[in-house]
Amino acid sequence: xxxxxxxxxxxxxxxxxxxxxxxxxxxxxxxxxxxxxxxxxxxxxxxxxxxxxxxxxxxxxxxxxxxxxxxxxxxxxxxxxxxxxxxxxxxxxxxxxxxxxxxxxxxxxxxxxxxxxxxxxxxxxxxxxxxxxxxxxxxxxxxxxxxxxxxxxxxxxxxxxxxxxxxxxxxxxxxxxxxxxxxxxxxxxxxxxxxxxxxxxxxxxxxxxxxxxxxxxxxxxxxxxxxxxxxxxxxxxxxxxxxxxxxxxxxxxxxxxxxxxxxxxxxxxxxxxxxxxxxxxxxxxxxxxxxxxxxxxxxxxxxxxxxxxxxxxxxxxxxxxxxxxxxxxxxxxxxxxxxxxxxxxxxxxxxxxxxxxxxxxxxxxxxxxxxxxxxxxxxxxxxxxxx
Length: 387
Ligand SMILES: *[C@@H]1O[C@H](CO)[C@@H](O)[C@H](O)[C@H]1NC(C)=O
Ligand SMILES: *[C@@H]1O[C@H](CO)[C@@H](O)[C@H](O)[C@H]1NC(C)=O
Ligand SMILES: CC(=O)N[C@H]1CO[C@H](CO)[C@@H](O)[C@@H]1O
Fold this sequence. Notes:
The chain is α/β, with parallel strands linked by helices and 387 residues long.
């Protein structure tokens, strides 16, 4: 496949295809269409419809989206060994899953030929289709996850994105065209789980639960998160999907570590998720009100989770070691499509498909606000700004 290794002429034409209607390059129109036809014939001889719905997809997050950024870091939060990747075409890559993560599946639905490359290894023109900055154990707060070792907190992921933007300006050769290009891309952000799991609920390592009530801590998280999302906007993002927290009290690790006192899940941790989500939704409203040429959407993973029909939702498919990640020496369960959890924290590919489908094209509006990713990518910002 040549999707990430296009020759430079085809690459530029693919960038310019997405800028077709920008006035300054109208003159190039005919020439570019020619280029696009040529490049398509060279690249995708057997596939009729390969145009992605957006030119690029930038991914911010934690282990639910990490695709290899932690591989070279000194941390316990790594998944670049078997049986991780047992159902992934390239085997173990650093994904905390047996197969594709939710953002991989979203990229496929958008029509990308290749998975979005991790920042750690993306070079040259790889970055034009987007970059994945996600890092296992990372959080909104910089200190989150530090008991595991190195990680890339959201603040650092944003600085890495700034580096990508300047590389893109070099490739595209023009600041304004780059801004236009970046405004057409999809951005997804899923942070916050670790600020509870690998911070607030670990009083032996972090002082936060002594210093703040759950409400206060959640308030601080949301203040910081809103600021970070504004920074993403300042770097040119205009179509941003924000993932709410899932039921963090239902992971096999939470149940094992904290006990449930008769409930199915750890109630206080699920309360934390709900509190976070209940503040995130109005934050999305506020961002949409303040930044009228952008569109933020909120995806309710907590609600979606309540609706699943999986047979096994309380134990992971692989045998785990003490930290809750898979034991490399024991074969995982064979019937992976029947499990919600792959290890003690992370969903199986089958469950990721379930989440991605309901985020991408929702059959109703219960869990997407104000609409789904499919509508976000086709959203016309010009129309929104002139309202
Ligand atoms: C969780 O939230 C419910 C509903 O708000 C509340 O009644 C309950 O006391 C909370 N439980 C814990 C352990 O915080
Ligand atoms: C999955 O396979 C394992 C091992 O064969 C078996 O013990 C388990 O009951 C199966 N689970 C389901 C839900 O079929
Ligand atoms: C993509 C990008 O860097 N755009 C910049 C172009 O220049 C203006 C003004 O200097 C900046 O505000 C943009 O951020």
